[in-house]
Design goal:
Layout lengths: L1 E5 L4 H12 L3 E5 L13 H5 L4 E4 L8 H22 L3 E7 L9 H15 L4 E6 L6 H7 L1 E2 L2 E4 L3 E2 L4 H12 L6 E6 L4 E2 H11 L5 E4 L4 E2 L2 E2 L12 E2 L4 H4 L8
Parallel strand pairs: 1-2, 1-3, 3-4, 4-5, 5-9, 7-11, 9-14
Antiparallel strand pairs: 6-7, 8-10, 12-13
């Protein structure tokens, strides 16, 4: 079966490509590097020819509010239009647990807009909502740094290992469309400040972590319900404090 992975050279995309290839599928990567520009639509018709399933794990190169919206909305429309012409039977996308609960975040608004385009389209679809990846610890700390302090919310979330997101995503890809969404999270709840503290301890980073209820995440305040899943989420099994001690995982 021919499967096209849009954004197939990124963290999740490259792992999805490898796993599907090892399972014997004909997998093609669609990205600017391979001559596909989803913003303009260039290269989409060619790469989607004969594809049965399309997986969109692409991301905006800029996280500024206007830039993110200007990426996800035309990209989503162009991909779905090209899929319809090519006769694609299943569109799969990766999104974020709680995106619809954070309308003050430009990034989250753009992800919600992307999902709305998919839902309103004519292609049967499945959307996987994931929590934040363990691999995001460094960027979360960096984004919260103010001089020698790291200011983060203590609100709980349930970050997950990217490999377990890939496992869930591949299961969705190889299943029939659900015309809805499913969530994947780690069962362990922790404050975002605690998540950063574990990372910084492993890095021997002596900066001070400040717990601040008003600290922003992707441009908005969060609470204990913002980034946590509903009752029927698929659960991972990897403990963050164990994962980060494994060779190669501390970045």
């Amino acid at each position: 079966m021919k499967i096209v992975v849009i954004g197939g050279s990124g963290l999740i995309g490259s792992k999805v490509v490898n796993k599907l290839t090892n399972l014997g599928h004909d997998v093609l990567v669609a990205s600017p590097v391979t001559g596909v520009d989803t913003i303009t639509g260039e290269g989409l018709a060619k790469v989607l020819k004969g594809a049965k399933k399309v997986v969109d794990v692409s991301n905006s190169p800029s996280f500024k509010d206007d830039d993110v919206m200007a990426f996800f909305t035309p990209s989503g429309r162009n991909i779905l239009a090209a899929e319809e012409t090519a006769g694609v039977s299943h569109h799969i996308a990766l999104s974020i647990v709680g995106a619809d609960r954070l309308p003050k975040s430009g990034y989250m608004r753009a992800k919600v807009a992307q999902e709305k385009i998919i839902e309103d389209g004519n292609i049967p679809y499945s959307i996987l909502h994931s929590t934040q990846f363990f691999e995001f610890a460094g960027s979360i700390v960096s984004g919260a740094t103010e001089g020698e302090t790291v200011r983060l919310s203590s609100s709980v979330f349930q970050p997950i290992c990217s490999d377990e997101v890939v496992d869930a995503l591949v299961d969705v890809i190889l299943s029939d469309p659900i015309n809805g969404n499913v969530e994947v999270v780690d069962p362990e709840k922790m404050g975002m400040n605690e998540f950063a503290e574990i990372y910084m301890d492993q890095k021997n980073d002596q900066r001070l972590i400040i717990s601040d209820a008003h600290a922003l995440y992707f441009g908005t305040e969060i609470d204990d319900k913002s980034l946590t899943p509903g009752p029927n989420a698929r659960l991972g099994a990897t403990c963050y404090s164990d994962w980060i001690r494994l060779p190669g995982n501390l970045r």
